[in-house]
Write a sequence for this structure.
């Protein structure tokens, strides 16, 4: 597609529920990033893929967070047993090559945990 | 401990005048800096960047200045237009232990350009 597509745009989850957030990067983009943006804050790095390899997951806040990109294109961020502090906008970004910093963000998924 | 700081949460400027957005950083290992622009309900959009080997980069109405000794950068928009009204994020990257492409963002500055 023309841009990075994320779904759903909005998700309301009850505390303790598992959620899965999807990212469709720009076709052919090698690098894929997940960021978390809390209200009033800048985006914070969660994890990074180069093709299907997860090269950095140092930003994942707990072992309840898991990301995958099995075929090197679509990626899923899964959050198990959601907590209220998980409420945020989750942004996905992709870039054509490794080391290209001006990458393209999707519109994000706003997760609200009630 | 914030490594990238945008100390002004908001800025209001008259159309046609200059907008100056400021950003400070603490980590001397950062070697690449970017500005992103964000409209409500959209993802951030890359605007302009600068490498630490330069002190200025210009792209149309947008100029970024880097002062490495002061660990400070600024984004100048001249002339400002109402369509520039958005939240502007400063971001940094480099060989500080993060993976390549991992950006550290500031909290953002909301720019309002009045007609």
């Amino acid at each position: 597609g023309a841009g990075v597509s994320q779904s759903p745009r909005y998700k309301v989850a009850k505390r303790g529920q598992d959620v899965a957030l999807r990212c469709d990067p720009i076709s052919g983009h090698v690098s894929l990033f997940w960021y978390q943006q809390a209200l009033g804050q800048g985006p914070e790095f969660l994890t990074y893929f180069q093709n299907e390899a997860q090269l950095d997951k140092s930003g994942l806040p707990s072992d309840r967070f898991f990301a995958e990109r099995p075929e090197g294109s679509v990626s899923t961020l899964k959050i198990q047993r959601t907590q209220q502090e998980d409420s945020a906008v989750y942004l996905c970004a992709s870039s054509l090559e490794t080391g290209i910093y001006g990458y393209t963000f999707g519109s994000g998924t706003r997760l609200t945990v009630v | 401990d914030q490594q990238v700081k945008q100390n002004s949460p908001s800025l209001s400027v008259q159309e046609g005048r200059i907008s100056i957005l400021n950003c400070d950083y603490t980590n001397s290992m950062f070697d690449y800096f970017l500005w992103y622009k964000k409209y409500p309900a959209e993802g951030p959009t890359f605007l302009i960047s600068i490498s630490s080997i330069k002190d200025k980069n210009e792209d149309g109405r947008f100029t970024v200045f880097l002062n490495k000794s002061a660990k400070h950068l600024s984004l100048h928009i001249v002339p400002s237009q109402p369509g520039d009204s958005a939240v502007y994020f400063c971001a940094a990257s480099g060989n500080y232990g993060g993976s390549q492409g991992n950006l550290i963002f500031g909290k953002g500055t909301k720019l309002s350009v009045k007609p």
